[in-house]
Amino acid sequence: MTRQELIKTIRTKKSFLCVGLDSDINKIPQHMRGDKDAIFNFNKAIIDATLPYAVAYKPNLAFYEAGGIKGLEQLKMTMDYLHSLNDKVFTIADAKRGDIGNTSQQYAKAFLDPNGDFNFDSLTVAPYMGEDSVTPFTVYDGKWVILLALTSNKGAFDFQFMEDKNEGKHLFEKVLESSRKWGNDENMMYVVGATKADMLTTVRAIVPNSFLLVPGVGAQGGSLTEVCRYGITSECGLLVNSSRGIIYASGEKDFAERAAQEAQKLQCQMAEELKNHNVI
Amino acid sequence: MTRQELIKTIRTKKSFLCVGLDSDINKIPQHMRGDKDAIFNFNKAIIDATLPYAVAYKPNLAFYEAGGIKGLEQLKMTMDYLHSLNDKVFTIADAKRGDIGNTSQQYAKAFLDPNGDFNFDSLTVAPYMGEDSVTPFTVYDGKWVILLALTSNKGAFDFQFMEDKNEGKHLFEKVLESSRKWGNDENMMYVVGATKADMLTTVRAIVPNSFLLVPGVGAQGGSLTEVCRYGITSECGLLVNSSRGIIYASGEKDFAERAAQEAQKLQCQMAEELKNHNVI
């Protein structure tokens, strides 16, 4: 999906909601767990229920890999289902990959190749190994690398805020700056955690127009209003993710209905923000 | 495999060679490519040929994921085969994972769980997301996290050598220092590229006894002698990896024989180093 298509989808749906499919066999409703395609059935129900309110879906690879090959078959079924929808959505492989050049090429093939098993629109990538670990993900037309800049977890403070001796810049700022030479606003986004919303001003000073994937609203405690205050652009420029707050809103038979309610609640807030900031 | 078992294996085999199974369908010998289990057949032949000379095998996940679910089935067959050997070897999932705590738990389950599809001894992890992204990998007895410190690629210079404003320390030094609170010499190793052998003195000042996984000898240009000069300990403390230099030593029908020759050549050099440094 291109940048213009993404922006159009956001304006049409009045939403920049990404639903995180962190689907765990031990957390989905008890009555579904016995089925051999339990995770796919759960995902399908969540997708069907939240599709009017969401522009993106983000399966986190760890939850599928934890089920071994069978878990990845559930992911493939989920991706096949997403691709079959008339209502096109942006898909994110939350995989946090990154390796030396010839190896990153293989990861790019695994997740972004239109002829591969998954054919995601985008992939999250960790920047520790630098340029040649990132650029192989930018070669597919209309596909995206989503680079970790400032993550939503406590461990983000261990290294991402390290200050550079010469310029006093934080590591995450150096990642943002360096990456401008590796990609552009049409093929590179950044992860910036909602729990660090006050840092969005710093982020926007470096990447004023880039899309940001913002996790941490909901279960992790981030605020949508704060994220928009510092991060929204005239073309939105945000994908705000909620995983557990939506998919596990209920652990009972009404899980899909409750997921829809939570997604709608966020979409309504997002529509307000889009209006307030003159995006729509 | 515990640290003591690993050291014993090294002393018995007079080798600290790790064979990297970066098995690519487009690079294995032409005559094998048609078979549905081509990658497994290739790996099995390489393993059988190199087993007298190697103490560890390191499939890089990217090469299996690039083949989609079928690719991962080849990995499972490879791991099942390695587990079936009487000659026990150390297995490394070169996966470079790392995510927020509850997600890293799922990756740990995917790769290290004895009841999972793969049951590796260890997993490589990227440190960008800090403590809670790393510690979930240390919970399985006799299993290891191998943390990226200083990688062998050109992009390593982008961030890993960033100097801290307060202490003047490099990012990779801070990663090494911080990680000492997250694990110990029984469950944590580090990736240090052979192409940066002169930095091993700095590394050893922080982690004097830890095992280091050293890629970059061979195709990437690192020197075994240099690595040993600065990195070897009284218990060896090194696993030196070669991937392409061994598995693609020939692209013809003699590929396994040539792989064995290359592995033996390295093992002979390693036996010399182990003697010279009084490890055996």
Q: Could you give a quick summary of the protein structure above?
A:
Chain A is 41% helix and 15% strand. Chain A is an alpha/beta fold and 280 residues long. The radius of gyration of chain A is 18 Å and the shape is globular.
What's the arrangement of secondary structure elements?
The structure is a homodimer of 280-residue chains.
Chain A: H1 3-13, E1 17-21, H2 38-50, E2 56-59, H3 61-65, H4 68-84, E3 90-97, H5 101-112, E4 122-125, H6 131-134, E5 144-150, H7 156-159, H8 171-179, E6 188-192, H9 200-206, E7 212-214, H10 224-231, E8 238-242, H11 244-247, H12 255-276
Parallel strand pairs in A: 1-2, 1-8, 2-3, 3-4, 4-5, 5-6, 6-7, 7-8
Helix pairs in contact in A: 2-4, 2-12
Notable features of this structure?
homodimer, alpha/beta, 41% helix, 15% strand, 8-stranded parallel beta barrel, 280 residues
Helical residues, percent of chain A: 40-55%
Biggest sheet of chain A, open or closed, and with what strands and sense?
8 strands, parallel, barrel
How many beta strands in the DSSP annotation of chain A?
8
Distance between the termini of chain A: 20 Å
Strand content of chain A: 5-15%
Strand order of the largest sheet of chain A: 1-2-3-4-5-6-7-8
Shape of chain A: globular
Order of helices and strands of chain A: HEHEHHEHEHEHHEHEHEHH
Largest interface: A-B, 61 and 61 residues
The protein's oligomeric status is homodimer
Task: Give the count of helical stretches of chain A.
Answer: 12
